[in-house]
Amino acid sequence: MTVTVRPAGPADHDAAIAVWAASDTARRGSPSPPEVPQMLRERFARDDVWLLVADDDGVVIGVAQGAPARDDGGTGPVVPGRCHLSMVFVAPERWGEGIGSLLVDSAVAVAAGVLVASAYPARLADYAGAHTTFVAGAALIAALAAALAALLAAGARPRSAGA
């Protein structure tokens, strides 16, 4: 088993939703509300949302989703330098292997290296830091991949699943 965490692309969305559905159903003991998969498709398509998947030999087995933190219960302005990690799910048959921890570690690394700034672009200079890259829109996936690569090149090593 070689589990890797990578930025998800649109082709991963259905697999990520399937992992969410299986995990949520196992956790709840009953099927999730039928409107949630469409809500997730819409969320994943937003420019300010990033999605990571845990991949085991081409099979998506986990998902973590984040976005910029916002004031006013998530409806207000972006809170500079903060991220909201809103979901971490692992396929139920893979629970207990450390995959959730691997996703969270990777999400923290991404959040530390990438700040999504789709609102208030005129204030980007106010938020600038040595390890911060600003992205918006379609550049998000490429920036996430670059941030992960840069962190790994600098010596950051995420824990492996099961560790």
What does this structure look like?
The chain has a single domain, classed as 3-Layer(aba) Sandwich (Aminopeptidase), CATH 3.40.630.30. 39% of the residues lie in helices and 26% in strands. The two termini are 13 Å apart. It is built from 6 helices and 6 strands, in the order βααββαβαβαβα. A 4-stranded antiparallel β-sheet has the order 1-2-3-4. It has a two-stranded parallel sheet with strand order 5-6. The protein has 163 residues and is an alpha+beta fold.
Strand order of the largest sheet: 1-2-3-4
Q: How many separate domains make up the residues?
A: 1
Assign a percent range to the helix content.
25-40%
Q: Rg from C-alpha positions?
A: 16 Å
Q: Stretches where pLDDT falls below 50 for ≥5 residues?
A: 115-138
Coarse shape:
globular
Q: CATH class, anyone? A: Alpha Beta
What is the CATH topology?
A: Aminopeptidase
Largest sheet: 4 strands, antiparallel
The CATH architecture can be named as: 3-Layer(aba) Sandwich
- What percentage of the residues does DSSP assign to strands (E)? 25-35%
Mean pLDDT value: 76
Order of helices and strands: EHHEEHEHEHEH
Gap between N and C termini? 13 Å
How many DSSP E strands? 6
| Helix-strand category | alpha+beta
Number of helices: 6
The CATH superfamily title: Gcn5-related N-acetyltransferase (GNAT)
